[in-house]
């Protein structure tokens, strides 16, 4: 797994694509949080990072599929997937190596946003009033969200040899998991009980729950379960493709 992990990290940062993806993510955050008046942290009148945590999941819908879309698609396209299968690596070694390398890149993209916390703290009249618990919870929520989106992206890449198709599948699936169930719950025919369970099936419900600053084990289990399911489906997809090609 470690060999796959190192290979993926080196490959990502050996091309300008990786840097561009992260820079665009941070640039978009900076513009929305400090330049555009409707979402600017400076114009809210409150010392908090709520706009960041509202915006980041939407940007992740584009960033993470862009990071993961080549994970397996390029291996299929170049024919190196068959080569990997001949090496002393288990199926889980390949899947987890791809997953953790992509997740590390997501974490790297998130780390510079910590500067926003210190900026708000310096600008605040009373820094002691900052909701540190809520901010920490929101960052934990973003990490869990990033891990789930990464697992979905890796799975999407295992379905096709076309990186752009993998990107679109990941974008659509992440959107459905994040916002689709919440939107379905608002249909009048589901009101009165089913709406609550539909919300619970979606990522947004659990992300908002963690963002309140209380780390509930049920939310953590949800994120880990969805991530685990997508990684398991990735392994099954690889086995099917290798069996067909064999």
UniProtKB/TrEMBL annotation:
Main location group: membrane
Source organism of the structure: Chitinophaga dinghuensis
One term under GO cellular component: plasma membrane
Transmembrane segments: 12-35, 94-119, 139-156, 163-181
Protein name listed in UniProt: ABC-2 type transport system permease protein
Keyword Cell membrane: yes
Topology term for the membrane: Multi-pass membrane protein
Annotated GO MF terms: ABC-type transporter activity
InterPro entries: ABC-2_transporter_component (IPR051449), Motility-assoc_ABC_perm_GldF (IPR019860)
Coiled-coil regions, chain positions: none
Lineage top rank: taxon: Bacteria
Subcellular location: Cell membrane
Keyword vocabulary terms for this entry: Cell membrane, Membrane, Transmembrane, Transmembrane helix
């Amino acid at each position: 797994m470690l060999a796959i992990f190192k290979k993926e990290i080196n490959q990502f940062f050996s091309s300008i694509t990786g840097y561009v993806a992260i820079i665009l993510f941070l640039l978009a955050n900076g513009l929305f949080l400090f330049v555009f008046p409707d979402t600017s942290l400076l114009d809210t009148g409150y010392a908090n990072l709520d706009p960041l945590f509202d915006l980041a999941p939407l940007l992740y819908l584009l960033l993470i599929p862009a990071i993961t879309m080549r994970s397996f698609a390029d291996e299929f396209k170049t024919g190196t997937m068959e080569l990997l299968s001949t090496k002393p690596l288990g199926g889980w070694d390949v899947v987890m190596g791809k997953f953790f390398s992509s997740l590390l890149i997501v974490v790297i993209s998130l780390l510079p946003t910590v500067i926003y916390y210190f900026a708000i703290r310096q600008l605040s009249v009373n820094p002691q009033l900052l909701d540190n618990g809520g901010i920490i919870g929101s960052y934990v929520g973003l990490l869990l969200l990033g891990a789930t989106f990464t697992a979905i992206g890796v799975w999407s890449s295992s379905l096709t040899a076309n990186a752009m198709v993998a990107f679109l599948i990941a974008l659509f699936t992440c959107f459905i998991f994040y916002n689709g169930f919440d939107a379905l719950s608002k249909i009048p025919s589901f009101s009165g009980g089913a709406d609550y369970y539909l919300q619970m099936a979606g990522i947004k419900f659990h992300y908002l729950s963690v963002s309140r600053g209380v780390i509930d084990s049920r939310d953590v289990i949800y994120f880990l379960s969805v991530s685990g399911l997508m990684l398991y489906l990735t392994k099954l997809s690889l086995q099917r493709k290798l069996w067909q090609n064999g």
